[in-house]
Design brief:
Blueprint: H1 3-12, H2 28-80, H3 82-101, H4 109-122, E1 126-132, E2 136-137, E3 141-152, H5 154-165, E4 171-180, E5 188-199
Antiparallel strand pairs: 1-3, 2-3, 3-5, 4-5
Helix pairs in contact: 4-5
């Protein structure tokens, strides 16, 4: 049967009288069109049911891949600098150890006060008092403050302060008060708050 005759049959077909049960006697072109429509419907249905979730999963994996690549590059950069970081850590630990050695222990505080007294005597200063205050515990160290008052001339007091600052143990000086003596002499009276520090070990209670 020619294509022209088949097209004429389609034009003359009464679509309202079509019965799916009689599909076997429909024009072959109509059967072909119905088969194509059915195939397309099945194809798009399978694509929506199977390919859709797979596509979403693929997009998720691609995003995850990009994040993993960024993490890898970041870790690779850190690994490349690992040797330098280790050297810096060793240097910091050495410096920390040196600083800890400059902090007196609780048992060494009396000898530190003796050193300060000797510095005052060497500079011919009169010591009114060296009075310990209650220690204050911080996160990593214990702060041990004490009040100090000496009397003498200006230059000897200045030399005494320089000697205290150069002690092998850390001593910080605060709240200076320098006033002339009331007896009319050239001597001055120095009052100050000094602080020394001791390292608090982990087993010590804060």
């Amino acid at each position: 049967m020619s294509l022209k005759a088949e097209m004429r049959r389609l034009r003359e077909l009464d679509w309202r009288e079509l019965d799916i049960k009689e599909a076997g006697v429909w024009p072959w072109s109509l059967q072909l069109i119905c088969c194509l429509l059915l195939f397309l419907g099945i194809f798009f249905g399978m694509h929506w049911y199977l390919a859709g979730p797979a596509k979403q999963e693929l997009e998720r994996v691609r995003d995850q891949e990009a994040q993993l690549v960024r993490d890898y590059r970041s870790k690779a950069a850190r690994a490349a600098n690992l040797e330098g970081v280790r050297e810096q850590m060793e240097e910091l630990e050495a410096r920390m150890g040196a600083l800890q050695e400059m902090l007196p222990t609780g048992a060494e505080v009396p000898s530190l006060l003796d050193s300060i007294s000797e510095a005052a005597i060497d500079n011919q200063l009169s010591i009114d008092f060296i009075r310990l205050r209650s220690p204050s515990s911080q996160e990593h160290f214990i702060e041990r403050p004490f009040d100090l008052q000496v009397r003498g001339d200006y230059h000897r007091i200045a030399t005494f302060l320089a000697d205290v600052a150069s002690l092998s143990r850390i001593v910080t000086l605060h709240d200076f008060s320098l006033a002339p003596e009331s007896d009319g002499s050239s001597n001055l009276r120095l009052s100050l708050l000094a602080r020394t520090y001791s390292y608090r070990h982990e087993e010590e209670a804060p």
